[in-house]
Protein 1
Amino acid sequence: MARLRVLLPLPLAGAYDYRVPAGWDVPPVGSFVVVPLSGRQLYGVVWDGEADPDLPERRLRDIAEVLPVPPMTASLRRFVEWVAAYTLSPPGAVLRMAMSSPSALEPPAQKAGWRLSAAGQRAARGEGRLTEARRRVLDAMEPGEVYGGAALAAEAGVSAGVVRGMADAGLLESALLPAGADFPRPDPAHPGPALGPEQRAAAAALREAAAARAFGVTLLTGVTGSGKTEVYLDAVAECLEQGRQALVLLPEIALSTQWLERFERRFGTPPALWHSELGSRLRRDTWRAVAEGRAPVLVGARSALFLPFPDLGLIIVDEEHETAFKQEEGVIYNARDMAVVRARLAGAACVLVSATPSLETLTNAETGRYAALHLPTRHGSAGLPDVAVIDQRRTPPERGRFLSPPLVEAVRETLAAGQQAMLFLNRRGYAPLTLCRSCGHRMRCPNCTAWLVEHRVRRTLQCHHCGHAEPIPESCPECAAEGSLTPLGPGVERVQEEAALLFPEARRLVMASDTIPGPAAAAEAARAIAAREVDLIIGTQIVAKGWHFPHLTLVGVVDADLGLAGGDLRAAERTVQLLHQVAGRAGRAEAPGRVLLQSWNPGHPVLEALVSGDLDSFMQAEAESRRPGHWPPFGRLAALIVSAEDEREADRAARDLGLTAPRAEGVEVLGPAPAPLALLRGRHRRRLLLKARRDVAVQPLLREWLSRAGVPAGVRVQVDVDPVSF
Ligand code: ADP
Ligand code: ZN
């Protein structure tokens, strides 16, 4: 009897062998199947390779079912294997990301819709009197066709109540909608905005790349507001004309309502979406629509890379420098890098987009591995904002305050001119540290190396790493002094409090992950700001991403030095990227924009780069500082995080691992040292860093190292290839 290999979505070493029951056709490689495993029924995928012919017949079980979904393509199977090998993860753990929920694999449930009844068909031929709204609905329908209620109302431009009323009146009868027929099809011929000359040139190059039907990577850069989105949407149109699927990755898809509106203006329909907040039914329908080629464009978070596109032609990674593309749990991978791999395996074009590309990507463009396109000016008449530093040493804020007089003055002027202002501080909550004035005790998380952050609105102290929360104590837990606990330093809530005192008239909006938790709140915030119902926006890093607020002319950065402290080699690069993005929110329409950076260290190269606007020179200097030590992107890096609940056990395991570290030409192992966040969720963490020259393949070294090391029970070793901080 025929045998085949089935990969299961579990962290197992490889595929398992199964038997095809007598009389069945052998399902093709890639088929989704149900198989038994130790008393359970599991979904899996028929994998490549030969089953072991020597395995005795009695050890083999039969596959139970072949599911009615298109088989997983060879290019996605290769991708699963590639990611597993690169990240040193079990292939099944990666497959799991490509499987979605089991229910997506079941035959789709059919949904109820409407079609014309006999009476409706007579009315459509003009018999009897009809209201204008009902007439429009009948005009929108073909006899015999089934329509979803909402889609029908939208098509006819009437309310859903009109459709229901017509059903009650017997003009429509219910019928089953063909499964999945209601996924939107973006229309590439739908007219988009007229592109400016620079945009046209870049769009033509991207169209050519998308039409080539071959792998290639292009870096699209351009100042904030230069219209990069419209340019790459043109490449999406080309991909659609080629009849292939396009995938757009955004770092904060759930908050990207403005982006979605633009997509809809460009293509006449919204795209299919993929992110963690999709409901389970939509998730299932979307997965299936992608697998069946019914979702021509999908916009998603990093996990969308693992969707089963049958013929992927284009991948766009917008804001490619964003650390949100890095998944830090489970299979640890960077979606930006894996997008390039996915595109290569699919024979697709890949476009990386950013106003402030990562050093990795810039280096790839410089060496010619990636093509590069640049938009040098803002779209329309807008110029770039004017950036200046406020030297806090010379004009410090008042005691206990955080906004210096020049910044307060600038906000006042802006508001008086009827324009909008934004205060940016990348810190949630009220105060990042709570200190006892009597004994000096600092409130820290019991589970993590982190201070507890006061959230005054919720009256709690919270850990931003493990979610621990406790009420703000009345007295110091150390010395019992009453009322001695004092908040130190600002978070956005505290800036908002100060703004309320300084600008009581201004209508203020705080934009942080606790006030803007999802798409609905983001859409409402965008609407209120566009409608000028808000004068002053106070926000964390969520205000930095992609927003286009035409009436916003002033951005004040409350603490431009934040993020530069600490030993992370990549801190300067990340700070420049973040602050440049925030600054880019100012002056995007006719009125010129202004950016003020409050700093205690105004001579810092990061601030000088932001003021001069010469980010290229800054990145060059960054590159030169990393080259001699073979730091990324001039060398390879992998972190091993050793963790245990017991601190001594973590130390011992890390030390033992260090003793068996690989010794090879061009390879160096640093540590063990306390990991960033040496205590996280109750586990003590130590880190070993393997640094290698670019020409060294680190995965075989790591694999061999880990196979040699005996890891005691209770100790976990996580491999992070290309760590974000180092
Ligand atoms: P970037 O992504 O480079 O920061 P955007 O693509 O967000 O820039 O464009 C900035 C603003 O200019 C957006 O509101 C966009 O709709 C508008 N815009 C860009 N290009 C055009 C165009 N060719 N015609 C009309 N509006 C445009
Ligand atoms: Zn914690």
Protein 2
Amino acid sequence: MDELESDKHVKYILSIEKKKDDVEALLMEHLRINGAYWGLTTLDILHKISAVDPEEVISWVMKCYHEDCGGFGGNIGHDPHLLYTLSAVQILALFDRIDVLDAEKVSIYVAGLQNEDGSFSGDMWGEIDTRFSYCAICCLSILHCLNKINVEKAVNYIVSCKNLDGGFGCTPGGESHAGQIFCCIGALAITGSLHHVDRDLLGWWLCERQCKNGGLNGRPEKDADVCYSWWVLSSLIMIDRVHWIDKDKLTRFILNCQDKENGGISDKPNYAVDVFHTYFGVAGLSLMEYPGLKSIDPAYALPVDVADW
Ligand code: GRG
Ligand code: ZN
């Protein structure tokens, strides 16, 4: 079997864009704060977070902060959004520096996006999606501020997005999709509400995502893609059904998507690598206890030593 090219992946992450070994490259322009979170978390799983200067990262993250409202933008000068606010909080958690935040203010921003029916909008423009329920709940839990929202309503909204096949969609009636299932199961796990899930029914739907080539897809009839090694596996672990897939075959699929020369992992074999799929591949292997990797928490998407507090 191929091996995980850890050193090459570290080099790839550090050299993104500028092809130079500094943190700036990782944080620049198009990758923005989500990319920084995925890249830094991957470095941490590979035991190489020490290759970046925490002060540099933290000061850049705080430049994305909007003091007026308490939210974070995706880059300096960009509008605030829940997706970016979660990434910012996760990055600060990675460095154990949540203390630089006014947690009260950030949690008021997040809580302000909860709607009457318990759902969450992503930002002031109002789009509603279970992705944002996850972002809000994960973020507030890291900040120890879940009491700022109506958790019962938030849970009921997520449950209203459950389908007859056991999966979840982005809004009530929306098609089941592995990405949305991660968000809903993650949010239910964090709030201690997994009793709303039919584990066998959902586990069956999730393990059927494994394709002939060993990779996982996101819904029926779609191609396998390395990112579902994260969305599907983390969900299966949270509902205690991960033994229903063939780990060896999935490991082979992920390792076969590596760029063995220049590092990085792609979504499918022989495609171009990117930082997101590098995270999904490495994190997927970590969930399967591949040797030498830090273990990652399936609900918080942070290394367990970070999520442990
Ligand atoms: C901190 C882990 C973490 C997540 C933050 C952004 C977010 C919360 C969750 C996103 C969940 C999601 C919806 C993921 C799916 C992304 C994806 C690959 C969509 C494309 O799906 P399809 O079915 O296309 O249109 P494919 O490529 O599968 O054929
Ligand atoms: Zn993908």
